[in-house]
Specification:
By secondary structure, the chain is of the alpha/beta class. 41% of the residues lie in helices and 20% in strands.
């Protein structure tokens, strides 16, 4: 069951704009003063997980509508395997608010039957004009170990080469692998634009990334009480290197931690970043939007 929830209040105190949000999800936050984009979301996973949990999917169209109502007017749909990458290309071709990235997730690389064949299919998709980035790729030492790490690194290196070949940003997944992420990027030579997705390091690691020209993308984790290191990293980052993301349906910002996430909750993270950076909400929004256009091009 879904219910209509308000996302914008009129001057007379009555709700004059409504959007459909499943009742089990958090209420829509106050709209932002200027549009921003979600640099990393999984519209397909949000829909499929809701269907598995509640019996009815929350469509990408409804997700995009809910996001637009609060000032999140663009999203980057991120691929994690060949199937989701193809879906992302189709979604971005259908919806003007969506651009796509394509890749094998680092935890997917050890699982595919033929890594070379899967990478070749990603490379074919990478040339599509609605594909604006290569990722998420990288290293994940939390869920993969042993021989699986060999396939991860091989895949990571192949994605780096592909990003440079097609001149598109590289979106990096880094879980418990900070030093090795930099080792591989330094060895291969980083593309012109690198996005550290769901930045998880401290200020020292942030400085290493910033010195290399990378962008730091902050998720809802920056709002968690037990993550002062992320706020220290955000405080260090110049405004022109900061992005904001959901990684939906994961990493829901406070005060809704533990509930499913979606792009319409981006304003909570943007407000937290504005506070950390000690800038106005409008300035934060405009910086994020400008960074998105510069990295991913016009939607």
């Amino acid at each position: 069951m879904t219910v209509f929830q308000p996302s914008e209040r009129s001057l007379n105190g009555k709700w004059d704009h409504w959007t459909v949000i499943p009742e089990s999800l958090p209420k829509a936050p106050e709209p932002l003063p200027s549009p921003v984009f979600d640099s990393h979301t999984h519209l397909d996973i949000v829909a499929s997980e809701r269907k598995a949990d509640k019996g009815s999917a929350w469509s990408p169209e409804d997700q995009l509508e809910a996001a637009a109502k609060v000032g999140v007017d663009r999203v980057v749909q991120v691929g994690v395997d060949v199937k989701s990458s193809r879906w992302g290309v189709e979604c971005a071709s259908t919806h003007s608010a969506v651009v796509a990235t394509v890749a094998l997730h680092p935890n997917e690389a050890p699982r595919v039957a033929d890594l070379a064949a899967s990478l070749a299919q990603i490379a074919e998709l990478a040339n599509h004009q609605r594909v604006r980035g290569i990722g998420e790729t990288g290293l994940d030492f939390f869920r993969t170990s042993g021989e699986g790490l060999i396939a991860q690194e091989e895949s990571f290196r192949a994605h780096i080469a592909l990003a440079k070949q097609v001149s598109k940003p590289l979106v990096v997944h880094d879980r418990d692998a900070h030093a090795d992420i930099l080792r591989v990027l330094d060895a291969e030579g980083a593309p012109e634009h690198v996005v550290m997705h769901c930045f998880s390091g401290d200020a020292a690691f942030a400085q290493e990334c910033l010195e290399r020209g990378f962008h730091l993308s902050f998720a809802g984790t920056v709002t968690f009480k037990n993550a002062p290191h992320l706020r220290e990293a955000a405080a260090l980052a110049p405004l022109d290197r900061i992005l904001v993301e959901t990684d939906a349906p994961y990493l829901t910002p406070m005060p809704h931690r533990g509930k499913p996430n979606a792009s319409y909750l981006i304003p909570l993270t943007v407000r937290a970043l504005a506070s950390v950076k000690e800038v106005s909400l409008l300035e934060m929004c405009e910086a994020i939007s400008d960074n998105g256009e510069r990295l991913f091009g016009p939607w």
